[in-house]
Write a structure and sequence with these properties.
The protein is mostly helical. 52% of the residues lie in helices and 0% in strands. It contains 3 helices and no strands. The two termini are 12 Å apart.
Length: 67
């Protein structure tokens, strides 16, 4: 994790941290939790933190906020 990712992780509520880390690693959280939980986490991450977990992430590609 980069420093920006670590800071984002620490700012997240505990209930969203696992979803964020799973997405950062390149896994689709949709298949790892209930549908209701996935959409609730997706909505909260996007509206509050600007993180869109609906798009597949390649862990080798830096996020737009990374230097």
């Amino acid at each position: 994790m980069t420093k920006d990712q670590q800071l984002t992780f620490l700012r997240l509520p505990v209930k969203l941290r696992g979803t964020y880390v799973t997405w950062l690693m390149g896994y689709n959280p949709y298949f790892l939790m209930s549908r209701e939980t996935y959409y609730r986490h997706k909505r909260e991450l996007l509206s509050t933190f600007g993180i869109d977990i609906s798009h597949r992430r390649d862990p080798k590609t830096p996020l737009k906020t990374d230097p």
